[in-house]
Design a protein that fits this description.
Blueprint (H helix, E strand, L loop, with lengths): L2 E2 L5 H10 L4 H13 L13 H8 L2 E2 L4 E7 L5 E6 L5 E9 L2 E5 L3 E3 L14 E4 L2 H12 L10 E4 L9 H12 L11 E5 L3 H9 L5 E5 L5 H7 L7 H15 L3 E7 L7 H11 L4 E7 L4 H7 L6 H13 L3 E4 L13 H11 L1
Parallel strand pairs: 1-2, 6-9, 9-10, 10-11, 11-12, 12-13, 13-14
Antiparallel strand pairs: 3-4, 4-5, 5-6, 7-8
Helix pairs in contact: 1-2, 4-5, 6-8, 9-11
């Protein structure tokens, strides 16, 4: 299988262009077309000599991923189903909100974490995405933006557990951040993890400093284990690793809690979170669950009412925590992560 240019470092592209008879400035032209113009074919690289383009194309393609399907929601949210080189699929989501446009991207095909409320892990994990496949999601999303829109923020909160694919994620983020790459500021990039302290230490050692979000969901180990059956690290160890990240990077950590009615939105659950997080500098982001039909049928989970959500948020604030509540987006178009891929897999197997 031909390798994609998006999986190559700058040095590797320099060497490749040289091997194909090109000059150093032509390698820079190729990189500019690839990352700044989002070219998806060698033919689009108009100022690169035809002979050089032909030589590059003999063993390489520009990128592998293609857009298989686009779901447009009434609120402007766009969910993209992407097909990869081996016919696997992943999702990314464009979320416009006034002047802000956020892209949510994936790091794995499927997910090994298997949170009970999430569609991403219903079929397990198939493989890690390469650095190129992660970065390509940004290029493909940019191609879908309306003329007056640009991506302002990136969240690595889609399919997969980012900390279990740092070999792909870190070079992808470097490319996305690099001024000669896509050029997005590190402060506009947030990576979400379900909590792997050892890998979080490695993430903390990376440069530059990105924002960190931790999918906590509960303040006590017993309830968290029910919600995240694969969880092996105690809540206190996850929080300690996140706090060390704050100490190293100076970036306040966000703790995410997917709220499920009668499961983790009760008064005692709020007390557990307050006790776990104490006076740490952080924000708790409450995410009312986006129902997934298959999970509702199997497990009977429900999205909390507005009254319960507001009461839970008030309890956390009363305990001294900063709290935000995520507004539901794309509700009419399979809003929950992994649903579009799930529908495609169901259709393929029927």
């Amino acid at each position: 299988m031909q390798r994609a240019l998006t999986d190559l470092s700058n040095d590797a592209i320099d060497a490749l262009v040289s091997e194909c008879g090109g000059k150093p400035f032509q390698a820079r032209q190729v990189l500019h077309w690839l990352w700044k113009h989002g070219a998806d074919s060698f033919e689009q690289m108009r100022n690169v000599p035809t002979a050089l383009r032909a030589a590059l194309a003999r063993e390489h393609v520009v990128r592998h991923a293609t857009i298989n399907k686009v779901d447009d929601a009434e609120d402007g949210t766009q969910k993209l189903l992407l097909r990869l080189r081996d016919n696997e699929t992943v999702e990314c989501v464009i979320i416009p909100d006034e002047e802000r446009t956020t892209l949510c991207i994936s790091t794995q095909v499927g997910c090994p974490v298997a949170c009970v409320f999430c569609a991403s892990g219903m079929f397990g994990v198939r493989r890690n995405l390469t650095a190129g496949e992660i970065a390509e999601q940004v290029l493909l999303a940019q191609s879908q933006l309306r003329p007056n829109r640009r991506l302002t923020n990136l969240v690595v909160m889609g399919m997969g557990e980012p900390m279990l694919n740092l070999d792909g994620l870190l070079p992808a983020l470097a490319r996305i951040h690099d001024a000669d790459g896509i050029g997005m500021g590190a402060r506009r990039i947030t990576v979400s993890t379900s909590g792997f302290p050892r890998q979080m230490e490695r993430f903390a050692a990376a440069d530059p400093s990105y924002n960190l979000a931790v999918s906590l969901h509960a303040g006590d180990d017993e309830l968290r284990k029910r919600l995240v059956p694969t969880a092996t690290s105690p809540v206190r160890d996850i929080i300690a690793a996140a706090h060390r990240y704050f100490g190293q990077k100076g970036r306040e950590v966000t703790y995410e809690v997917v709220l499920l009615e009668g499961v983790n939105d009760r008064p005692d659950d709020a007390v557990s979170l307050v006790n776990a997080l104490g006076s740490l500098p952080c924000t708790v982001n409450l995410i009312p669950w986006n129902p997934v039909e298959e999970i509702v049928a199997q497990k009977g989970l429900r999205r909390p009412s507005v009254v319960r959500i507001d009461s839970f948020a008030d309890s956390l604030r009363g305990g001294g925590l900063k709290v935000t509540v995520r507004r539901q987006r794309g509700a009419d178009r399979s809003a929950a992560c992994g649903q579009l891929r799930l529908r495609a897999l169901d259709a393929a197997s029927s």
